[in-house]
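Technical annex, item 7. During the second reporting period the consortium partners agreed on a shared format for inverse folding records so that results from different sites could be compared directly. Each record opens with the tokenized structure and is followed by the designed sequence. A conforming record, contributed by the partner at site C, is shown below for reference.
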């Protein structure tokens, strides 16, 4: 280091700002698509955004707090049925209903969390799945015209909202996706996010420094439940039909989410986004050509995820950063940079 160089600690870099600008342009283009009149493309954008939110939230819980949950489908199902209760039962506007549906799910996540957090390691993972199954069975046992018990029910959409349903739903889910990703980014850059990652890396060491591991993990659990249910409720405005076995299905929701995050890159913000987009594109291609059944597709993607976890542990984003060290779209950690500074004869920077 010369006398004209100085060490500067930064998070953002020029490349990250450019990458964020490109990502912002992509969001703008998605809004242009959903504001159009092509329902096929609108549906694709909605599905991709839902997957991005679900993958981001599972990664926040698992990749950054170290809690492996295989029961995230419980928040999908609760978000869907919260929407049904608010819209069909109470007569609220279907788009207004997604907010209270997500809030109700977050409230219900508190007792679920109290039970799940009494378990550790693999028992926590199994416990979340068991709790999701319990909630599914409870929903199926409710015999009312609103819930529909085991046969499910359909969302009642007023005639005035039917024509622009895909457009409005598309705009809402793009906003939800941006909110989920940005909130995760801001959260992880905060002192709370630093404490969360410290707990993940060394829980004992973090506790010795005064970090309340239980508290920070529980808060993340609630945040993940809120955004997961928010995206799920929005998705079912597009889907319309809600059935408990489908809404609480581990094979339809949590298993694909895990595959997306592992392939994209766990413990990063960029990885789940890449994994979700790639997963959707492959699934869409396979379904349109009909040479793979759904079970076969799940098996193949599961095998690919296992191979990635064994040989490419950083996922696709890990491969990118290994090829281009220091490159990141959402820089969370502080980095030391060497800056050139011009000094006058008295040593003051110009």
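Designed sequence (site C submission):
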């Amino acid at each position: 280091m010369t006398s004209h160089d100085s060490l500067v600690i930064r998070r953002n870099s020029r490349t990250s700002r450019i990458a964020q600008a490109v990502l912002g342009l992509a969001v703008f283009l998605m809004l242009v698509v959903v504001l159009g009149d092509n329902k096929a493309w609108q549906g694709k954008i909605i599905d991709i955004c839902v997957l991005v939110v679900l993958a981001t939230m599972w990664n926040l819980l698992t990749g950054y707090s170290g809690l492996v949950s295989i029961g995230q489908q419980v928040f999908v199902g609760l978000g869907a049925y919260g929407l049904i209760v608010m819209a069909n039962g109470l007569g609220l506007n279907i788009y207004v209903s997604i907010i209270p549906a997500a809030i109700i799910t977050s409230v219900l996540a508190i007792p679920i969390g109290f039970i799940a957090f009494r378990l550790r390691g693999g028992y926590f993972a199994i416990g979340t799945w068991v709790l999701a199954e319990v909630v599914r069975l409870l929903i199926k046992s409710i015999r009312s015209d609103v819930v529909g018990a085991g046969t499910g029910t359909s969302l009642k959409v007023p005639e005035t909202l039917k024509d622009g349903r895909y457009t409005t739903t598309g705009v809402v889910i793009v906003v939800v996706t941006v909110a989920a990703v940005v909130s995760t980014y801001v959260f992880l850059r905060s002192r709370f996010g630093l404490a969360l990652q410290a707990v993940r890396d060394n829980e004992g060491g973090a506790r010795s420094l005064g970090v309340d591991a239980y508290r920070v993990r529980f808060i993340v659990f609630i945040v993940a439940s809120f955004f997961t249910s928010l995206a799920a409720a929005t998705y079912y405005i597009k889907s319309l039909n809600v059935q408990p076995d489908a809404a609480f299905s581990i094979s339809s929701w949590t298993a694909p989410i895990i595959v997306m995050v592992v392939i994209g890159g766990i413990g990063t913000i960029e990885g789940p986004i890449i994994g979700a987009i790639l997963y959707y594109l492959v699934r869409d291609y396979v379904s349109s050509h009909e040479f793979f059944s759904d079970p076969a597709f799940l098996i193949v993607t599961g095998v690919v995820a296992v191979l990635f976890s064994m040989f490419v542990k950083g996922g696709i984003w890990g491969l990118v950063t290994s090829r281009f060290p220091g490159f990141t779209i959402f820089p969370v950690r502080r980095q030391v940079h060497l800056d050139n500074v011009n000094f006058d004869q008295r040593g003051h920077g110009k």
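Residues 8 and 104 are 45 Å apart (CA to CA). The first helix runs from residue 14 to 34. All partners now use this format for quarterly exchanges.
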